[in-house]
């Protein structure tokens, strides 16, 4: 079947609203009360006229520019990306918003307009503006209510047909992709126990076997479930990742060291003390539960056998699973030296691991900072409408990725300054102030940044002689 043309897609969109009439001979457009609301350029690009707030949100979400074309056209038109043009259902809410906006503008007399009809149309337009432009503005976080299947340990949110976002386990949030005959997993948590719990809960979704695990990067909380899989399962990662697991002594270094190995005994001791001192029965129960799960995790950590992938790739690998295409993409270094994006082009979904965690700030102890910013730029060029990060929440807005790039830029600049002044990393980690980014990263509690990330910036600057 041939791909529909931009014109066909435009006509399909216009047909969703019987109030809208298509006009124009050379340039096709729609208008209301003499005010144009959309047009199709000769190059086959749809331009949509949006009110200021929605325009800003749209530009951010889709990372597109205003249209300056066609002389007298005011720069109120956004260029609709081809991917959105082909999704009439998604585009419709913006089209309605545009119609409502045109309807709210002062009518322009045209030779064909009839006064009575035009004022009636105007009222409809204003009503629609209230309905769509307020509530319909695309939110920064996805905010979607995805259908949920709750397992014993994991919660699965169905984000597309056969695609589930799994959270609630120990370590990473994972993605479960159910195909015609098998299941592909993205990441598998901190411990073998976590991976076994995930496999058990997946049985609520499907009886198909897990054939493939993709590790987004080498960190323990994404890969230490690997050892539960038999040799028949392909574990795929970037070649850097395999090398890291084999040679970095991962259980004796960061981030495992501070986050698990050193932290847990201290936590267990503190919980024991608090439990001994607690008077209130409810508080006692709560502390006893916390202690039990910390002790269980401590036992489970002992079972970890860092297990490298048995399949590696260097820049791109594509899995064809029945009707599904799954791309593994290395777009450059960043969070680590070998991060994979798992991209579903048909579903327009990308799994980002810790390269981007939406409204959360990722760990930076193994990062390559300037390359990270560049790699995120390459990521934004992919055609997707949903991001499934390795921690946090799914999100849709590419502006969220831009916000993280800006955080990285700001942090490295501040640390570089302090380093130049001869300040030690420990002190620099206290003095940097990223609180101006709080609107995008609500976890920021004031000045300061994670010492491991700041130390890494010093090291990275030495390595790259910056
Ligand atoms: Zn990580």
Low-pLDDT parts are: 69-73, 111-141
The shape, in one word, is globular
Ligands in the structure? zinc ion
Mean pLDDT: 87
Count of alpha and pi helical runs: 15
What is the percent of helical residues?
25-40%
What class, by secondary structure content? alpha+beta
Strand content: 15-25%
Describe the protein's architecture and organization.
With 466 residues, this protein is of the alpha+beta class. Helices cover 40% and strands 17% of the residues. It is built from 15 helices and 18 strands. Strands 6-7-8-9-10-11-12-13 form an eight-stranded mixed β-sheet. It has a five-stranded antiparallel β-sheet with strand order 1-2-3-4-5. A five-stranded mixed β-sheet has the order 14-15-16-17-18, with no helix packed on it. A hairpin with a 2-residue loop joins strand 7 (155-160) and strand 8. Helix 4 crosses helix 5 (115-135) and helix 14 crosses helix 15. The protein is globular. The model is unreliable at 69-73 and 111-141 (pLDDT under 50). The chain binds zinc ion. The site of zinc ion has 5 residues, from loops.
